[in-house]
Amino acid sequence: MNKQAIHDRIESLRQTLAAQDLTAIIVPSADPHLSEYLPEYWQARLWLSGFTGSVGTLVVTADFAGLWTDSRYWVHAAEQLDGTGITLEKLAPGQPNHIDWLAAHLAEGDSVAVDGNVLSIAEQDRLLDAFEANDITLITERDLLTEVWTDRPALPAASLYVHDAQFLAQSAIDKLAAVRAGMAGATHHLLSSLDDIAWLTNLRGADVDYNPVFLAHMLISENDATLFIDNNKVSSEIAQSLKDSGIAIADYEAVQDALGTLTADDLLLLDPSKVAVGTLSKMADGVGFIEQMAPSTLLKSVKSDADIDHVREAMRQDGAALCEFFATFEQRLADGERLSELDVDSMLIEVRSQQPHYVSPSFPTIAGFNENGALPHYRATPEKFSYLEVNEGEGGLLLIDSGAQYQNGTTDITRVVGIGQVSTEHKRDFTTVLKAHIALAKAHFPDGIASPLIDAICRAPLWQAQMDYGHGTGHGVGYFLNVHEGPQVIAYSASTPKERAMKEGMISSNEPGLYREGKWGIRIENLMVNKRVSHPVETEFGDFLNFETVTYCPIDTRLIEPSLLSQIEVDWLNDYHRQVYAELKDRVEGAALEWLTERTQSI
User: Fold this and answer.
1) Burial level of 550, CB count in 10 A (0-12/13-18/19+)?
2) Terminus of the chain with fewer CB atoms < 10 Å: N or C?
3) Core vs surface per residue 515-527: b (16+ CB within 10 A) or e
4) How far apart are CA 512 and CA 474, in angstroms?
């Protein structure tokens, strides 16, 4: 992006701050639904800073501009911010975040603006707590960006469609009843999170790249439910289906007025991390609140047996597509064709799109060669990418993290490919990551344990070798929904509220990694289902869960140093490859079958 354009945008924003007698502005990476992936209309932080990472907060004052982001993005954030006048502020344990910085650097009586339409209630509370001691004023009623971003894109307008009935285990009526049963005595429940609304209505959309969701709010009471959405997106058939399910339709912008009709006799349930301050701007004083996780968040995280059967089938389809990809990819390299990271992305989309029920990628493909693979969330672009080339006698590693949305499931997988002659160091690092992956895949743990606590099981082999990685080990995965889904998260740095308990039927990723800056990156990722451990007799220690790995794709044994694996680890890998072969052998033929057969041989 043009660095001068960034300079000009920041200066224009500063002029707006000065004209309105404001000291600072916070520009988060958020929308009114607190989504991970944002429609272009709400990508203000990207537009102002040029930083393309999915996580980051920009702060601008008269003489300072800084962007806070975590370790996944430090390297490429430094590159993208260089020459813009924006300082990279590294988010790390024990280091000040943007709230700490503002509280420390602003004076009594100063004011900070942030658009309440993209500020969660929980974040507002943190800001108010930090600013109270210094009498700093927080202003959330103004959207300053509309004055600066004159060519702001329009809101998305994709039409809704129905999640194919053959893949649904529950009707919208039944889901709505389950949500009402979990409303904890509230008279009303506000939902703004898009994946919760899509799950609850059994509808899907295309308003957000990679996630089959649509922009909407939903207000539920004991007897009524209203979906606030752009009516132009709703066909007459879908409108009738919603009506039959007891769901009325109102304009997207009308949610504020609807909330404004609540009285002191009402009690509103909402998730403060998933509802924006601006959505409540017309609420009357005196309305009571219950602030907790939305019932639908836990309900949709626990997949039914039928859902899991469909997911297994989606994984077989995805595995067959990957066999086609890797067979073709390796042959093209062997033939001397000059391939790039961008080619990997296009080839993956091509093979996956030929599978039944395919909809789209589930996130931007990460294909990072050598030093690019050391950036956990790297993305090749036409302006910046690498060719998969090494000098004679040398070797490199290509990390490929990709996935797809199918009507019968969402996939997410990472594999590493050796290019040229891989080194002893490559194999040592790869095998150590594999040991970590196997440790989690084989784990048993108490039913209901806080998911962050099991992270240490995975990291133990890496810690034993004095190695580690900066991102989480696992995230929940939706069912033809967001590839990143809560409430569970396998990350020792995460908090452990009761909502993050591991439950039977949840699907999580298993993705330990290792990143050597400027050299290479390694990550091995499969998806796993929480399954109940069956006991021949009951024990006094309660129920335990373990994992069923449902990703079917070989792990490249050519990158393994066998002497570093125990016999138990070798047995796990060989068993996994036998299962992969059994699941996929009848779905591929020719070169893809030959590739599958070769890559699933025992070690």
Assistant:
1) buried
2) C
3) bbeeebbbbbbbb
4) 8
In angstroms, the CA 553 to CA 569 distance is 17
Give the residue carrying structure tokens 């506000």.
190
Q: What would the pLDDT profile of 154-212 be if each residue is shown by its tens digit?
A: 999 999 999 999 999 999 999 999 999 999 899 999 999 999 999 999 999 999 999 99
Q: Report the alpha-carbon distance of residue 538 to residue 379 in Å, rounded.
A: 50
Rg (CA), the chain: 25
Of 579, 501, 512, 509, give the one whose Cα is nearest residue 545.
501
pLDDT at 540 over 90: no
| Distance between CA atoms of residues 30 and 278, nearest Å | 13
pLDDT for the residue 536:
61
Identify the three-state secondary structure at position 450: strand
Verify cis geometry, omega within 30 degrees of 0, for the bond prior to 487.
yes
Average pLDDT, the chain: 96
For 168-183, write each residue's pLDDT tens digit. 999 999 999 999 999 9
Locate 491 and state its tokens. 């990350």
Measured CA angle at 137 (ends 135, 139), to 5 deg: 170
Distance separating alpha carbons of residues 172 and 246, to the nearest angstrom: 9
**What ranges in 58-204 are assigned the alpha helix state H?**
74-81, 98-105, 121-132, 145-148, 172-181, 194-201
Burial (CB count within 10 angstroms: exposed 0-12, middle 13-18, buried 19+), residue 342 = middle
